């Protein structure tokens, strides 16, 4: 057997373990009876340990060393190089440290849960501080250039740096902030039509129709309900989504379904023959999010999409919607209004939620900000950027699960995803003749094909910057997002007389 084949088989076995764990995790979120929580945690930790051991084992290193001088194709060489980089990086982290961190995460997660219920940050403070200490140490093991936070960013968004984020979030402050201020001065739109009674079963069926319309393959996946919508996959041939349905608010189901559907299209678009290899895995979290947000925002929250789809939605909910038209619906779904909760935010104010978390995380890793001062900092920034007074810790500093999982550097990928989405979509409109007519005709198949060809099928073959340049001719550029926002919101709000 060739060394490359041995390497592929080893990588596939590691993927088998990780994907089995993912199936258990999916079950935990969707169907698992509550009494099983303890054993399930143990089962997941056993599988994670096995996969880590197998990946960082000397045998993996030996195969990679042999392959360094082997005669390989460009694609094979790229898989080996990517794996070698990850191997060298994670090999440096001692097993005892991994175990210590895993225990600290369990403690922080439990106290976060308690603190959130009690709306009291102080119950979580000590465990968060202990976890942060370990994450600071982790930066030293993993290594970084420049800012220590770069080591954390690299876990989710390979090669992303503080220097690049400073430019992006600088634009958010300089250009998006005054634009939102202008919207606040204009005549406001109503989203009351979203907040009526909508039968849950009918919502479910309609969501499935939309998933089929955007090209989600139900023979290679399924949808279920969970309290926090998510997408998971066990291969490109089994990609599952979940949604959340609120009988009093149609937005919940619609946007979570299309958003997760967009994530799922990416996973279904990876090449099954590359299973277990870097070329068969999503590129970065920002790239993943670009796919969900392109379908959710650029397609799903567009007037074109609803000019095609509103009549059918009226058929499903005649009582609630017969008095309205596609334009009313388009305006209601895009209402801009600050919310203390990130996951409820509109697509403009959303980026200030991310900006706040990014600035806080950066200062934590600079050791400029102490955990004890986090809450005051958080509340002050919500006042500064969103004009909000935070009423308690549950709707403030405790709202997100991420830090309790030890995930620092994750939030920026949400904004990066939106910015990529705008840039990709602008290029797709140029490349695909009649794309917006297709969307109005409820047939966006050419868009999916474009995304598969240009993005999905490559997996981790290129760096994110390289891929973006190959597709759009330049690296990530905030101008595209700003242009998209200015065009779209000028058709929702009358901005002609305000903010001069
Ligand atoms: Co997402």
How far apart the termini lie comes to: 71 Å
Ligand identities: cobalt (II) ion
Query: Helix tally?
Result: 21
Oligomer classification: single chain
Helix content: 55-70%
Number of strands: 3
The string of secondary-structure elements, in order, is: HHHHHHHHHEEEHHHHHHHHHHHH
Estimated radius of gyration: 23 Å
Main structural class: mainly alpha
- The amount of beta strand, in percent, is under 5%
Q: Outline the biggest β-sheet.
A: 3 strands, mixed
Uncertain parts: none
- Round the mean pLDDT to the nearest integer and report it: 96
Strand order of the largest sheet: 1-3-2
What general form does the structure show?
Answer: globular
Report on this structure:
The protein is an all-alpha fold and 500 residues long. The chain has 21 helices and three strands. It has a three-stranded mixed β-sheet with strand order 1-3-2. A hairpin with a 2-residue loop joins β2 (231-235) and β3. It binds cobalt (II) ion. The site of cobalt (II) ion (CO) has 4 residues, from α10 and α11.
List the helices and strands and how they pair.
Layout: H1 3-30, H2 37-56, H3 58-68, H4 74-91, H5 95-118, H6 122-142, H7 149-156, H8 162-185, H9 200-214, E1 223-225, E2 231-235, E3 238-243, H10 250-268, H11 285-300, H12 303-316, H13 318-321, H14 326-333, H15 350-365, H16 374-386, H17 412-431, H18 435-440, H19 445-454, H20 464-472, H21 478-490
Parallel strand pairs: 1-3
Antiparallel strand pairs: 2-3
The structure holds cobalt (II) ion.
Residues 259, 263, 289, 292 line the site of cobalt (II) ion.
């Amino acid at each position: 057997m060739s060394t490359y084949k041995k390497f592929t088989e080893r990588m596939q076995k590691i993927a088998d373990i990780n994907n089995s764990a993912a199936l258990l995790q999916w079950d935990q979120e969707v169907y698992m009876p509550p009494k099983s929580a303890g054993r399930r945690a143990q089962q997941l930790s056993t599988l994670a340990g096995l996969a880590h051991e197998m990946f960082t084992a000397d045998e993996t290193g030996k195969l990679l060393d042999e392959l360094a001088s082997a005669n390989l194709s460009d694609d094979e060489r790229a898989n080996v190089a990517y794996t070698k980089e990850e191997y060298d990086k994670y090999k440096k982290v001692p097993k005892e440290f991994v175990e210590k961190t895993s225990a600290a995460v369990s403690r922080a997660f439990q106290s976060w849960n308690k603190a959130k219920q009690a709306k009291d940050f102080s119950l979580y403070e000590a465990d968060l501080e202990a976890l942060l200490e370990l994450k600071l140490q982790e930066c030293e093991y993993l290594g970084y250039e420049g800012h220590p936070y770069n080591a954390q960013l690299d876990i989710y968004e390979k090669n992303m740096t503080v220097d690049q984020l400073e430019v992006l979030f600088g634009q958010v402050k300089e250009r998006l902030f005054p634009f939102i201020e202008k919207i606040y001065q204009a005549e406001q739109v109503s989203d009351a039509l979203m907040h009526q009674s909508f039968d849950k079963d009918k919502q479910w069926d309609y969501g499935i129709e939309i998933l089929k319309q955007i090209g989600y393959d139900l023979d290679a996946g399924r949808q279920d309900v969970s309290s926090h919508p998510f997408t998971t996959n066990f291969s490109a041939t089994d990609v599952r989504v979940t949604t959340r349905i609120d009988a009093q608010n149609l937005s919940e189901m619609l946007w979570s379904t299309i958003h997760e559907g967009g994530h799922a299209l990416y996973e279904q678009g990876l090449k099954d023959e590359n299973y277990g290899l870097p070329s068969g895995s999503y590129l970065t979290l920002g790239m993943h999010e670009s796919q969900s947000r392109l379908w959710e925002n650029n397609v799903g929250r567009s007037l074109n999409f609803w000019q095609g789809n509103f009549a059918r939605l009226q058929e499903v909910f005649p009582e609630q919607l017969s008095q309205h038209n596609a334009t009313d619906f388009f305006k209601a779904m895009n209402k801009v209004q600050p919310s203390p909760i990130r996951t409820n935010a509109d697509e403009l104010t959303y980026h200030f939620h991310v900006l706040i978390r990014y600035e806080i995380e950066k200062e934590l890793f600079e050791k400029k900000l102490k955990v004890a001062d986090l809450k005051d900092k958080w509340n002050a920034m919500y006042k500064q950027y969103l004009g909000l007074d935070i009423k308690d810790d549950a709707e403030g500093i405790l709202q997100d699960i991420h830090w309790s999982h030890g995930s620092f550097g994750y939030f920026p990928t949400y904004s990066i995803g939106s910015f990529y989405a705008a840039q990709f979509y602008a290029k797709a409109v140029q490349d695909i003749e009649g794309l917006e007519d297709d969307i109005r005709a409820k047939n966006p198949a050419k868009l999916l094909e474009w995304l598969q060809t240009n993005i999905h099928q490559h997996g981790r073959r290129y760096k994110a910057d390289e891929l973006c340049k190959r597709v759009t001719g330049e690296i990530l550029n905030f101008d595209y997002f700003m242009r998209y926002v200015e065009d779209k919101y000028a058709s929702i709000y009358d901005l002609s007389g305000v903010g001069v």
